[in-house]
Design a protein that fits this description.
The complex is a heterodimer. By secondary structure, chain A is α/β, with parallel strands linked by helices. Chain A folds into two domains: about 325 residues, HypD, alpha/beta domain 1 (Rossmann fold), CATH 3.40.50; about 45 residues, no CATH class. Helices cover about 40% and strands about 15% of the residues of chain A. Chain A contains 19 helices and eleven strands. The longest helix of chain A is centred in the middle third of the chain and has 16 residues. Chain A is globular. Chain B has one domain: SH3 type barrels (Roll). Chain B is about 25% helix and about 35% strand. Chain B has one helix and five strands; from the N terminus they run E-E-E-E-E-H. In chain B, a hairpin with a 5-residue loop joins strand 1 and strand 2. Classes of the chains: A alpha/beta, B alpha+beta. At the A-B interface, helix 1, helix 8, helix 9, helix 11 and helix 13 of A face strand 4, strand 5 and helix 1 of B.
């Protein structure tokens, strides 16, 4: 297709930022951004320029709560066929993961997308097939589209764990634990929602924002655009990823989300309940809602309290308060083979990314 | 999770809900196209088996030139 590799341009951006002698803290919310940053050493390069960039709650698997994981484990133990994306299967619950209960004979299957899960339901009409739907606005429309267009069979249901990014960013800013000078917004979430849903963050909290793509040059350019806004005393939403993201987003996908889901107050791992940050199935589609369909099976979890694993700092990491290497478990008790927290499991988790590239 | 891969639409199913996407180097896979309006030859971004957006090739080709322009404009301010 096309290449965005241009070392000369990258050097120019870096030298321009360096000249400005800044001391800034930015947050992004995307595992793919974190991968590009660490894989290419951009995190270190930008630190030399006075810019610290960390990953906030931008990993859907990581922000899924212990309770949601226990819901899936319980449904698996009670004989349902549980389907989800690969990373989700490996996240430890209180004592086990979906993968570990699979070795005990539970029917747990990894799928590439929701359509694969519907196919499993169609081919196994005698089984109840539950799809654990995790993901931000990028993934939510795929769930919505299947409900609207694929006419899934009656033995198929969804445990919605979809969440929305702007509300989480608002929560981070309002909690006030971390002072952020700018936000790099996720390119593919923005593909769906466009740029408008972020605008209130600049207006109400005076935070500069740039929607950025995933090539190294995109991130450098995004950082430079944020620096420019700050230097000029401005705060607004800029789109660096115009080749993909349109101001209005993907309207068809937005309509599908709006038709199928409603916004609900939801907990995120490491956060208290974030208002309007979850997407749960509208009553009209309740026959596909696993929480309603299997209410009796899940009842025992209603009053239960859930805790993070001792020593695991995923919660602080997701709020931008710690880095992977500041966790005493990192690379010791917690590795991709023996993960303690979800940030080490998911390929989009900052611990997993740090571990993968620091090994080399 | 939000990883999305670009590919080219080479065939559209009769149901108009799926298409064959060519990711290059011989990799072709079916993708759901209900979230986009596409025709054969379009480049799309595919996430979890769904095309989520059509790529604007002209914008893509002009990206670097645009960046250079922005960099020099920034200096003038």
């Amino acid at each position: 297709m096309f290449s965005l590799k241009d070392k000369k341009l990258a050097d120019e951006i870096v030298s321009k930022i360096k000249k400005l002698d800044v001391n800034l803290k930015f947050m992004h919310v995307c595992g793919t951004h974190q991968d590009t940053l660490v894989k290419n050493g951009l995190d270190i390069l930008l630190k030399d320029c006075g810019i610290e960039i960390g990953q906030g709650p931008g990993c859907p698997v990581c922000v899924t709560t212990p309770k949601e994981i226990e819901e899936m484990l319980l449904l698996g133990r009670k004989g349902k066929t549980v389907t989800s994306f690969g990373d989700m299967i490996n996240v430890p619950g209180e004592t086990e993961s979906l993968r570990s209960i699979r070795s005990e004979g539970c029917d747990i299957r990894t799928v590439y997308g929701i359509e694969d899960a519907v196919e499993i339901a169609k081919s196994n009409p005698e089984k109840e097939v539950v799809f654990m739907a995790v993901g931000f606005e990028t993934t939510a429309p795929t769930t919505a589209s299947v409900i609207l267009n694929n006419n899934p069979p009656d033995n198929f249901s969804i445990l919605s764990c979809h969440r929305t990014i702007p509300e989480a960013l608002k929560a981070i800013i309002e909690m006030g634990e971390i002072k952020l000078n700018g936000l790099i917004e996720p390119g593919h979430v923005s593909t769906i929602i466009g740029s408008k849903p972020y605008e209130f963050l600049s207006k109400d909290y005076n935070v500069p924002q740039v929607i950025a793509g995933f090539e190294p040059i995109d991130i450098l350019m995004g950082a430079w655009m944020l620096v420019q806004q700050i230097e000029k005393g401005k705060a607004f939403v800029q789109n660096e990823y115009k080749r993909v993201v349109h101001e209005e987003g993907n309207v068809k996908a937005q309509k599908a989300i709006k038709e199928v889901f409603y916004s609900a107050d939801l907990e995120w791992r490491g956060f208290p309940t974030i208002p309007n940050s979850g997407l749960l199935l509208n009553d009209k589609y309740e026959k596909y809602d696993a929480r309603k369909k299997f209410e009796d099976d899940l009842e025992e979890l209603q009053e239960k309290e859930f805790f993070e694993h001792k020593g695991c700092r995923c919660g602080e990491l997701l709020r931008g308060l710690a880095t992977p290497k500041e966790c005493p478990l990192f690379g010791q008790a917690c590795t991709p083979e023996t993960p303690v927290g979800p940030c080490m499991v998911s390929i989009e988790g900052s611990c997993n990314i740090e571990y993968r590239y620091s090994e080399k | 999770m939000c990883l999305a891969i670009p590919g080219k639409i080479v065939e559209i199913d009769k149901d108009k809900e799926h298409a064959i996407v060519d990711y290059g180097e011989g990799t072709k896979r079916k993708a759901n196209i209900t979230l986009v309006n596409v025709k054969i030859g379009d480049y799309v971004l595919v996430h979890a088996g769904f095309a989520i957006e059509v790529l604007n090739e002209k914008d893509a080709q002009e990206t670097l030139a645009l960046f250079r322009e922005m960099l020099s404009a920034g200096e003038d301010v």
